[in-house]
Design goal:
single chain; 419 residues; alpha/beta; eight-stranded mixed beta sheet; 17 helices; elongated
Length: 419
């Protein structure tokens, strides 16, 4: 069997929204395309879609739909010396209304694109086809519809308990909302011991527990009622942080909540507790970006490496998970040097956050973010850099400065001359 073409991991600004629950059937003419399509079916963004792959191209499709109803999406690969337009005309006689058609073509195709459009083709893609090309093509068919998932999910978790992953998640989310002006929601998934309510100085009556234990599938109106407003662009779905019940969940317990939040919110930051269960693994694998927070010691090094390798293997078409080092430079604590940590992990941390018990302690006790306590502290800038890296968005202040810089450069010589 031919191996699927390997994709470069997608970058933060190469966002592909997950496909809704749809059925897709691909009719391929070459083994290479069929292999890429089968690999695409395993991608996390098509987790809800059912993609089946068949050989035989448009001829096999026509034969199949004489006997069975058509799916939501049909993908057809063209073949050399084939009257593809005539095949589309025949397919139209057996194709159900509302079915979307994607043509996987080649540079040698003779059928004009406008003729394909006239026959109802929704998209035309020129090969060779990588796995991510097929994923992107399917997902883009629904990205402008009401069914689309538009929000980016960022999952933050610790390589070990007590490393400050929640503090990092909350400060990064706050920075995304304030400095990048993205409508954001923090979801505290540590239902028993979550600290998001304390960190944002909020005490909401309702939160994530109401949604996850709801007998009905949560819709957008219901989720809006559960959110606590923290700022103009930031809302919180808080954990109850009580021990009244045991919080055992199935693997897909939070799927409906995440899907609903994606429809209305630009950025969802998940504060994922340090545990390895079916639902936490699914949550991390399903996120658009992952940040692992670690301290520079041996246990964190081992755990971070294991988590990074496992998640990277489960997400072959995504950007690799990222990590940062927190509480670096704690007095009297033996630490692994950053360069040695990075050498073992085989990648550099996106940030190192220095140990500062006074700053973080004051912020935690006051229910404030680091930038609210000390706006000019270098850690505040670090959180902004992490936010920019995870979202692929520049700082709005930098954007404004960049916009004005050509004008300012023109004015500079005049000012000097005037002086």
């Amino acid at each position: 069997m031919t191996a699927p073409q390997q994709d470069e991991p997608s970058h933060a600004d190469d966002y592909i929204a997950p496909a809704p629950r749809i059925s897709v059937q691909a009719f391929c003419a070459t083994v290479a395309t069929a292999t890429s399509a089968r690999a695409a079916a395993e991608d996390r963004r098509l987790a809800k879609a059912h993609l089946s792959v068949h050989m035989g191209g448009i001829v096999a499709a026509i034969d199949a739909y004489h006997k069975a109803p058509t799916p939501n999406v049909i993908m057809l690969e063209t073949e050399p010396d084939q009257d593809f337009l005539a095949g589309l005309d025949e397919l139209a006689t057996v194709c159900d209304p509302g079915t979307r058609v994607v043509v996987l073509g080649s540079a040698g195709d003779v059928a004009p694109y406008r003729e394909l459009v006239r026959r109802g083709v929704n998209d035309y893609v020129v090969g060779p086809f990588k796995v991510l090309d097929i994923v992107r093509t399917i997902c883009s068919l629904f990205s402008a519809s009401d069914e689309a998932s538009v929000g980016r999910i960022i999952a933050v978790t610790g390589a070990k308990g007590g490393v400050g992953a929640s503090s990092v998640a909350h400060n990064v989310a706050w920075t995304i909302a304030r400095d990048l002006a993205l409508d954001s929601v923090v979801i505290d998934l540590d239902l028993a011991f979550g600290t998001a309510g304390l960190d944002y100085n909020q005490d909401p009556v309702q939160g994530i527990a109401n949604a996850v234990f709801s007998p009905e599938r949560p819709d957008t109106a219901y989720m809006e009622r559960l959110l606590a407003k923290c700022s103009d662009h930031l809302s919180l779905l808080a954990a109850p942080a009580t021990l009244d019940q045991v919080y055992d969940f199935g693997a897909d317990a939070f799927d409906a909540i995440f899907d609903t939040m994606r429809m209305t919110t630009s950025c969802i930051v998940l504060d994922v507790p340090h545990q390895w269960s079916a639902w936490t693994k699914r949550t991390l694998i399903g996120a658009d970006d992952i940040l692992i927070v670690a301290e520079p010691d041996l246990a964190n090094l081992r755990n971070a490496k294991n988590m990074l390798n496992t998640l990277k293997s489960a997400r072959p078409n995504d950007r690799p998970p990222l990590y940062c080092l927190n509480q670096v430079g704690m007095p009297k604590r033996p630490e692994i040097e950053v360069k040695e940590f990075a050498k073992t992990i085989e990648s550099q941390p996106i940030a190192t956050i220095p140990f500062d018990c006074r700053l973080f302690g004051e912020a935690a006790n006051n229910g404030q973010m680091i930038a609210e306590v000390s706006a000019r502290h270098r850690t505040s800038r670090t959180f902004l850099q992490i936010a920019q890296r995870l979202t692929g968005r520049p700082d709005l202040a930098e954007q404004r400065e960049s916009f004005l810089s050509p004008i300012l450069r023109k004015l500079q010589p005049r000012r000097r001359a005037a002086g």
